[in-house]
Design goal:
The structure holds 3 protein chains of 3 kinds. By secondary structure, chain A is α/β, with parallel strands linked by helices. Helices cover 37% and strands 26% of the residues of chain A. In chain A, helix 3 packs antiparallel against helix 4 and helix 4 packs antiparallel against helix 5. The termini of chain A are far apart. Classes of the chains: A alpha/beta, B mainly alpha, C mainly alpha. Chains in contact: A-B, A-C.
């Protein structure tokens, strides 16, 4: 459904994404794993159409990223991206205006579940509330590919259940979810597959179950193996 | 429910359901949660919950009625069978572990008498 | 595209409200001066209104440029670029909102101006004689006074097209800076230099555009003679709009 072929993104001083190829299939929940700066966000932004690759191609259902892909792909950035004048209500209206797969009823219900006041202004929300708002907006879409960048960051433990349950509820065999995170433990149980990225390069991927069997450990421990070396001074 | 990482998740959920049938929480003929509800209940991937039910069905423990849901088998021997199967697995490990710390058969029996 | 335009309006509403308030204050002052028949206050308020009227048109366009530039460098651009709209639609929506706001300003200011002038002549009756004299003077020179307003409108349109072509050029330069030149040093300087160069180039080319009537004998002819220049500027505007959209499509990097 979503194919990335030899995608590269170079900036002035760095290469954010270095020759990554992958294939996302419908009916699966993927974890895109790697520490900050590993290229996860850049990759998702390229799929969302916010950034154009330096080279390589990205196709959605066989077509280049464009109007069609944007109508079926939802991307939730890590930052706050709403206009400062917008209230939660305004954001609902905006999404209704532009996305035919957006359900205002679902959005209002999620706002209520997460205890967000519809009249509250985006600029006045705490970071925790903003995190919940972004999720409410994006999970109220019935997108075929939903990419959530660090969905559990800043979300309190109670709300996490709401978020994870909403993802599970939204699931269907035609939809794909990509959850990027460095909080692996929370996500381990609900993912089908994991993709590991390091320094913009592809490291490892596969079904969660197979990875666990093959390496004899949880995805969390596998993560520590892959990335742990960089943050700890080696003894030998 | 906490999951161990060395056993596939779906097997752990299957075992949990078997336990519930064995001790009567779930009775023959009872309707089980939908795959979606199961996924939410255990906080697992929906594909995994589908696999749980296909596994249970393959073992003859549950059956599915199109449009109505998944039900515990009405086989009257089911509960006994499950209890026996699970007991068998547990006892093997149990005896090995106690042997490994030097208990004799008589000591194990006395110990159980005392502790149950 | 209309939905996008709606949001462009909403984004500008702070500027619009502030302008409306200032305008209302100046107009209130003018009306006060009329009621009290104070020539001094009338003179001051007329000057304020005139100054504001001219400045406000510039304000509309400067705000449009500043907003676009800020948007491309902030996260709120995500909102627009994630929606299923082509970059062309996005740029058109921005141009449309600028156009509508610009025209809106002109209509409001012109209407109030006409009313104010009317009030002026009613209050200061002696000045009507001067105007009548001036009208006869013009007619004696064989200038068709009835054509003055339509001519003024045509010159306004030419002015707007000229302004728009500059605005679109600046949009193109800003987009260039945010896309192709994103990783290059001195990108601000380069885009600024490009705008200057393009404007000078445009002015140079316009010197060579034929005026249909070299020496127009009446106002109709002078209007017709600026049509080629208008057409050229219109083409420049279109080129910049399509160029900007193309850049966004191929090289966007938010």
């Amino acid at each position: 459904m979503l194919k990335c072929e030899n995608v590269v993104k170079k900036y002035m001083l760095t290469t954010a994404v270095d020759d990554i190829s992958l294939n996302l299939e419908p009916g699966k929940i993927y974890a895109l794993l790697g520490p900050n700066g590993s290229g996860k966000t850049t990759l998702m932004k390229m799929i969302a159409g916010l950034v154009k690759p330096t080279s390589g191609s990205i196709t959605y259902k066989g077509q280049d990223i464009g109007v069609f892909s944007k109508s079926e792909i939802a991307y939730m950035p890590t930052e706050s991206y709403f206009y400062s004048y917008m209230s939660c209500e305004d954001i609902g209206k905006y999404y209704s205006d532009f996305f035919s797969d957006f359900s205002l009823d679902k959005y209002n219900m999620l706002l209520e579940n997460m205890e967000l006041n519809p009249k509250a202004k985006a600029s006045k929300l705490s970071s925790g509330m903003m995190a919940k708002l972004k999720l409410a907006a994006n999970l109220s879409r019935d997108a075929k590919l939903t990419m959530l960048d660090e969905p559990l960051n800043g979300i309190d433990i109670i709300a996490r259940d709401t978020v994870i349950n909403t993802i599970i509820d939204n699931f269907s065999p035609e939809k794909t979810f990509v959850l990027s995170s460095h909080l692996v433990d929370e996500l381990e149980r609900i993912i089908d597959s994991a993709i590991f990225i390091k320094n913009g390069k592809y490291v490892l991927s596969g079904s969660a179950e197979e990875l666990r069997q093959e390496h004899g450990k949880s995805i969390v421990d596998l993560y520590k193996d892959i990335y742990g070396g960089a943050s700890y001074a080696k003894v030998n | 429910m906490e999951f161990k990482s060395n056993i596939p998740i779906y097997i752990q959920v299957v075992d949990d359901i078997k336990k519930q049938i064995a001790n009567g929480i779930l009775k023959p003929g009872d309707k089980l949660l939908s795959t979606r509800e199961l996924a939410t209940h255990y906080t697992i991937n929906p594909n995994t919950s589908m696999r749980v039910y296909s596994e249970l069905e393959a073992e003859g423990i549950t059956f599915t009625r199109r449009g109505l849901g998944t039900f515990v088998s009405e086989d009257i021997n089911l509960v006994k069978r499950l209890k026996d199967e699970m007991a068998e697995t547990l006892i093997q490990g149990f005896i090995e572990e106690f042997k490994a710390i030097g208990y004799t058969k008589e000591e194990i029996i006395d110990f159980i008498q005392e502790k149950y | 595209m209309l939905k996008l335009t709606k949001y462009e309006f909403i984004k500008s509403r702070l500027t619009l409200i502030i302008s409306a308030i200032i305008f209302a204050l100046f107009e209130g002052y003018y009306l006060y001066s009329i009621i009290t028949e104070s020539t001094k206050h009338t003179a001051i308020s007329t000057a304020l209104l005139t100054f504001f009227g001219i400045a406000s048109i510039f304000i509309v366009y400067i705000m449009a440029i500043v907003t676009y530039s800020k948007e491309l460098s902030s996260k709120s651009s995500y909102l627009i670029f994630m929606t299923p709209n082509t970059p062309l639609n996005i740029i058109f929506s921005k141009m449309l909102s600028i156009l509508v706001i610009g025209i809106g300003f002109i209509i409001v200011i012109a209407t109030i101006a006409v009313l104010d002038v009317h009030l002026f002549f009613e209050t200061y009756e002696s000045t009507q004689n001067i105007v009548d004299f001036f009208k006869s003077f013009l007619e004696a020179m064989e200038i068709n006074t009835a054509m003055i307003i339509p001519t003024f409108i045509v010159y306004c349109i030419e002015f707007m097209i000229n302004f728009f072509s500059i605005v679109t050029m600046i949009y193109f330069a800003i987009t260039l800076s945010a896309t192709v030149l994103q990783n290059k040093p001195f990108k601000g300087f380069v885009s600024f230099a490009l705008v200057i160069i393009f404007s000078l180039l445009m002015a140079k080319i316009e010197e060579f555009i034929p005026h249909i009537y070299e020496y127009p004998t009446n106002l109709t002819q002078s209007v017709i003679s600026i049509v080629p220049t208008m057409a050229f500027e219109f083409l420049v505007m279109l080129a910049c709009i399509f160029g900007t959209a193309k850049l966004l499509e191929k090289k966007v990097s938010l």
